[in-house]
Amino acid sequence: MNQNERRLFLIRSLLNERLEYRDWRIPQDVSDQKLLLRGLLNVRPAQVCNPEFLRVQDAYLRQATAEKGITDCSALSPVQPGLYLWQGDITTLKCDAIVNAANSGMTGCYAPNHRCIDNAIHTFAGVQLRLACAEIMERQGCLEPTGQAKITPAFNLPCRYILHTIGPIVDESPTERDCAQLESCYRACLTLAAENHLESIAFLCISTGEFHFPNEQAAQIAVQTVKTFLNQKSSVKKVIFNVFKDLDREIYARLLRAD
User: 95 phi and psi, to 5 degrees?
Assistant: First the structure.
């Protein structure tokens, strides 16, 4: 199968899973097909897939990511020893682990084609990720607390693992508790990475954006927490601050070059 054939196979399979979708017409436009496929993946509940679907899905997602371009963290240059700054799509970064800004349900974003990173990570990792997260939550028996972290395989992403953490949601200005919880997110992810003998980890800007934590203050907490952790002896040797917006790149560049 080529990518077009894979995409149509996946769309048809997902439409046939639910009775209310079976009369939907598949658009002819490739961009519309991609949006439909992503939306169907987003709303699909955590459940087992047949092996043929997984085989086609895995081939499709891995080629789609390769076409976007994969960045190997070994090619990045440090700003400080052990500290890196990279602007780009975290789903295309090859390293030991990337961090996902998850929600307390931990099974991803169910809003079709939502632009949050949780949606993107679950989309391009594949349906296996939602099922893996659901199994963790079933064993846990409660929602994931803010400031903790869980680890899963990365499935079809170029990284090896995903570290899922729940950042604080800020109503107005951050409270002391908000700051402590954000610090805990970074520390929990780093600790989990070390427990799993990982060397490289990429953080996105936890709790900024839709969670309304001020970008500057969030970056200060992130940098200080990571620096403190790296002073300890562990397997973690390379921490990448991944940014998407120019504003965050400027903030991190200034903070990392301040010493």
Answer: -155, -175
